[in-house]
Specification:
By secondary structure, the chain is mainly alpha-helical. It contains 5 helices and no strands. It has helices at residues 7-32, 37-46, 53-86, 104-109, 117-135. Helix 1 (7-32) runs antiparallel to helix 3 (53-86). The chain is flat. The two termini are 38 Å apart.
């Protein structure tokens, strides 16, 4: 079982989260070009093709990749902001399933982690089993 986080560890996590937030914001700005996600998506979808079927298919694929990248970056940014908001709360660093402290090494690698390694493994195993059952 891990021990609760001390002040120095919390400050180390905060510094890492703030740096990650800055990088994600820069990445998102580069992807969206100073537009909102909705404005960017609209602009991408309104781009006209030239009637060339192969070119239009390639453009469609590029747009899908572009929108997926911005979605993933935006989701990561939301998770980082949520972790920053929760950092000073009583529950930060505690597993949402079992209540034990999440290992500091895990939080350094993934500060937005909400489960300890054991519970995350169980959670992923259940999700995999559910997905396999759904395919049958």
């Amino acid at each position: 079982m891990s021990t609760p986080l001390n002040h120095e560890q919390i400050q180390q996590l905060r510094a890492g989260l703030l740096l990650r937030q800055q990088r994600l914001e820069q990445e998102l700005d580069g992807l969206l070009g100073h537009q909102s996600r909705a404005e960017h998506a609209r602009e991408q979808l309104l781009q006209d093709g030239d009637g060339n079927g192969q070119r239009e298919s390639a453009l469609d694929a590029e747009r899908e990749v572009d929108l997926a990248r911005s979605d993933l970056t935006l989701q990561s940014l939301r998770e980082v902001r949520a972790a920053l908001s929760a950092l000073d709360g009583d529950g930060f660093g505690l597993c949402q399933d079992c209540g034990d402290a999440i290992a500091f090494a895990r939080l350094l690698a993934s500060p937005e982690a909400r489960r300890c390694v054991s519970c995350q493994g169980l959670h992923e195993g259940q999700a995999t089993a559910h997905a396999q059952t759904a395919r049958l």
